[in-house]
Design brief:
Layout lengths: L6 H15 L4 H14 L11 H10 L4 H6 L6 H23 L6 H5 L15 E9 L9 E5 L2 E4 L7 E3 H8 L3 E3 L2 E2 L1 H25 L5 H23 L15 E2 L2 E9 L3 E7 L1 E4 L2 E4 L3 E3 L3 E3 L32 H5 L4 E12 L4 E8 L15 E2 L8 H5 L3 E2 L12 E5 L2 E5 L1 H5 L5 E8 L17 H4 L3 E4 L2 E4 L23 E5 L9 E3 L12 E3 L4 E3 L5 E3 L4 E3 L23 H6 L15 E2 L4 E2 L11 E3 L4
Parallel strand pairs: 3-9, 4-12
Antiparallel strand pairs: 1-2, 1-8, 5-8, 6-7, 9-20, 10-11, 13-14, 14-15, 14-20, 15-18, 16-17, 18-19, 21-22, 23-24, 23-31, 25-28, 26-27, 29-30
Helix pairs in contact: 1-2, 1-5, 2-3, 8-9
Amino acid sequence: MASLCYLQPQVHQTHAKAEALDVPTPVIDALRNLLLALNLPTYGPQAYRPVDIIDALSRNSPSKHNTLFSSREHQDAQELFQLLSECIKNEAAAVEKEGHRDRGLGALAEAQGPANSTLGSSVFDGLTANRRSCMECGYTEAVMHFAFDNWQLNLPRAVCAQCRLEDCLADYTRLEVLTDCICRKCSMLATYRRLEAEAEKLTELAHGDQDPSASKKKRAREARKLAARVKVALDDGRIEEDIKGVRMEKVFSRASTKQAMIARPPRVLALHLNRSVHFGHYASKNTCRVIFPEILDLTPYTTSGQLSTSPSVPISTPPPSIPRSTTPTPAVYATPRVLYRLSAVVCHHGQHSFGHYICYRRKPRPPSAGPRRFDPPKLACPLGCDCEQCERIGPVRDDDAEPPRPRRGWLRCSDNTVWECSLEAVMQESVGAFMIFYERVVMPRQSIYMSTSPRSSEETVRPEGVHVNGSYASLVNGSATQDVQIVKPIPTKVSGPRVIHRVSAQPSSRSSSMSPPDRDPVPRPGTQSLASSSTALPNGHTVSSSKVNAPSGPHVNGGVTLGAERAARVRPLSPLEQTAYPTSSTSSRPAAHHRAQAASQSVSFPTEPQPLPPIAVDLRA
């Protein structure tokens, strides 16, 4: 636990707040001192006995004192972790509760400090979404969420078995078929059929007698009322509600499905590999080899924004895998991923009733790192990147990450013996791995343009956009959080290829696009029209300046080729031309500059320098 970057800042914050509020936190205080001692480098071999943390846990849980602390028998590391996690959670909740009390004028001074909403929650806490559905009637119960601080994964029992950690997670989150579950809707349907039969029977008895008693008529009316209540509840979908005066039947579904997935991933993922195998009164150790990765992608085992209620369909469908490429497309960044990096491994060597625990952990950063000493891991490059840095270190790394030296980067802790080792040595502990700790990777901000290098992908040529009030606007700066204001809807239907003058991924540039010759140009916001006038040309055509819009921005630098079947139009003015020829009146322009060629049917003004000819790109594909 000393290698967890998320745990140590939370312990320090809880300790500081507990001292300010005068709240006793013996376990957190002892744990803080223990973590500081374990992460402090020494010049020589020294042994540290964690007496304070054992005494604090003993006083906090007197009922477990004899079994966990007094005896010198073999103990379970997972039980100690659960006890420590529970004590941290309870003391942090007590500090948070004391902070919410009315402290009079003293609360004014505390209001100046930074608020931490995650102080009361543990870094190990997460939520699982559980769903159970009946395959006979199709009814799905409400999705229940349960908190967890560690996941217990079962291993295959085959002799000399081998599996991957992803296989254990997939087995935990798979659809499980049950045959001994009570279905609420099937029970309500059976209750309705029973009440209908009772009401019909009582009605026949009441009508069959020559002189039916009032009690028989009353029982028949009551049975019909109860049946009507159940019928209304079924029609309204109020399956889980209890109906007053109705004794519900209990019907076991012959086939129902159950599934559990992670709804809220924790900051620190603690995985417990259950290696206990029980055969009656005899227990043995499962020696299955578990291959665990350094970077764990938890996305296929987490829920997305949409939950399915179909009995035969998983709760959520995982996103597609990311292919390896040196130039990932923007679609790669649009797919949210839940990544974790390996932080520590607790291994057990021995048999089920005896043995020895050792721990592998990442080497801590030196105190000279300052505030970045406990920074969590970050995704520096996209998944599947083949750059040189990713080949040497990997896409997930620290800010000051450097390639580790041979047989360095990790610590092997066995009681009072500690030495450095490599990541490869940790990966070889597939037989003895008992608990695995992963820390969540901080993902970069999703952006459309992550690089300025040219790419031939269509989504690079045509930037992504957003629809606002029926209009379409491009997000040229790659940020989807900015406000986009559109004055007039921009039509999106294009009958022919567009003429693109410039496509740039720089945030300060914009793409200039003109309409094809067979479509009237649509005025866009931020443009100003020339004065309404017409100019006679030598070839008989007339140029109408009322239909010409000159954008006010300096980003337009191209012209428009005009068709022979339509009236000639003047292309937008460049900034130099706007200075030479004011747009307030067309009478001040020299008539000698108005020249039209019969072959091209185009009108142009002299520019200095001349812009490059536009390139026609067909984007209809």
